[in-house]
Amino acid sequence: MKYFFLLLSILIFVSCKKEVEKKTSPKKVEIIKRDKPYEGKILKIDTTLYAKFESPVLVDFYANYNNETVWQSTEFRKIILNEFKNAENEGLFPDDYRFEKLNKLETKINKLNDKELVDYDLLLTYNLQKYIWHISQGKLNPKAIYGDWDLKPKNTDVNVILLKAFKENKLQTVLDSCKPQHIVYKRLKKAMGILNSFPKDTIKTIAFSEKILPNDTLNSILTIKRRLMYWKDLKPQDSLTKIYDSKTVEAVKRFQARHGLAADGVIGKGTLNALNFSKTKRKHQIMANLERWKWFSQDLGNEYVIINIPEYKLRLVENNDTVRTHKVIVGTNKRKTPILSSKLSYAVFNPTWTVPPTILKEDIIPATIKNRGYLASKNITVYDNTGNKVSASDWNASKAKGYRYVQSPGSFNSLGMVKIIFPNKFSVYLHDTNHRDYFEKWNRSLSSGCVRVENPLELTSSLLKDTMNYDSEKIKEILKTGETKNASIKTPIYVHQWYWTAWSEDNKLIFRDDIYNLDEELFKKMN
């Protein structure tokens, strides 16, 4: 027994020693050899200087260069400083990258001693690494801010990107490739340039009292005209009158169209709210949108459905071409449509509707308590936990949340005649509606979270890509049966439910109402 414990102790000691050696074994670093000639002198870096940055990524980068300075190239330094100077074009802040301090060091680089050159090199690398991270995936993590955003996290390896830039000697090209390449992001950057071309905004805000109609005469018309001239919707005029004349009506219609409002020339609360946005506030909005686009995936798929929630619009895109566009109805501010990316699975014709918990709690149960006939009027059947039907007379309010409520198929069904399913943790989907008149409203933030689609049968037929079984006539035959039928979407088609409220078209600024009040709050968090 004594020998057994001795042997056991030796084995444990050896095992622990191996484990310590395994944990403490130094990380293998590939030292990168430099090709001569290079500008300036290469200086050794005292590794204790890394401590003040508290950045393992910085340490790892310089380890590849044998703990020596790397920014000998004047061209590369100018590229970096120019990126920092113009960071606002990417929705970022030059101060976050110590632009002023770095620029001062660059102007006197020929007078810097060795220690100052090392400090400059470290500071340049540290801020460039931060900048690459920010342009690749944004400053903020959406999952840390929102509970109803489900986007795949990005994980940018800044050192792989930097080493590629050095290896290929193409720093600018590599940095540009880190930025989102989607057309909307590019149009947002264009919008920032257009906005910056406007002069300082000193026009007062306009108080709302009542709707303003053509030919009305009001003092506020003067300020409205100044705002329309400022935003270039109304041509400059030498003298202004208080009359809401025909030229101003046309200018208001142009302004309304750019802002996704009903272009009827009637100046209501929505139009005045949009007019009262200052240049500064619009800038914040564009920067918030640029940040959001960095969170979105770069690879949307060859074919995808993309929904811009504040625009109330769905687009089907194939090989970068928009082949279909549909109006949509999205969730209210209280019951927001979640932001997500997924892959379409199948369509359901003549769907039943199982009432979700939120609608059950806030709508169905209160209505049934008031009127037991409510469920029958909505063609809703109630089932208990054993699957048996519960009649109106047996319905028990104290057990109401434990029942399952299913609405029968038909034109009265809340989902309409078809729904399109994709996996997601929010249990949302695309569907038809029994309130098709709602698509005529300009404010279509009306649903309980799912996305209702105008003309959904045409969209469904395009997604199924099976004219033999699911052309328009075959679909009508299926609907006439009243029977629920599933149809698989066999082609890989992705769906992106995203949120952006600003962009540009034909050198014009385009904005949409921030229906979930995300823009200004996001800008504050960014800043």
From TrEMBL:
One of its GO terms (molecular function) is carboxypeptidase activity. Residues 303-478 form the L,D-TPase catalytic domain. Keywords: Cell shape, Cell wall biogenesis/degradation, Peptidoglycan synthesis, Transferase. InterPro entries: LD-transpeptidase_YkuD-like, LD_TPept_cat_dom, LD_TPept_scaffold_dom, Peptidoglycan-bd-like, PGBD-like_sf, PGBDSf, Transpep_catalytic_dom. GO terms for biological process: cell wall organization; peptidoglycan biosynthetic process; regulation of cell shape. Pathway: Cell wall biogenesis; peptidoglycan biosynthesis. The active site is at H431 (proton donor/acceptor), C450 (nucleophile). SUPFAM superfamilies: L,D-transpeptidase catalytic domain-like, PGBD-like. PROSITE patterns: LD_TPASE, PROKAR_LIPOPROTEIN. It comes from the Bacteria. CDD domains: YkuD_like. Belongs to the YkuD family. PANTHER family: BLR7131 PROTEIN, L,D-TRANSPEPTIDASE HI_1667-RELATED. This is Murein L,D-transpeptidase YcbB/YkuD. It comes from Flavobacterium dankookense.
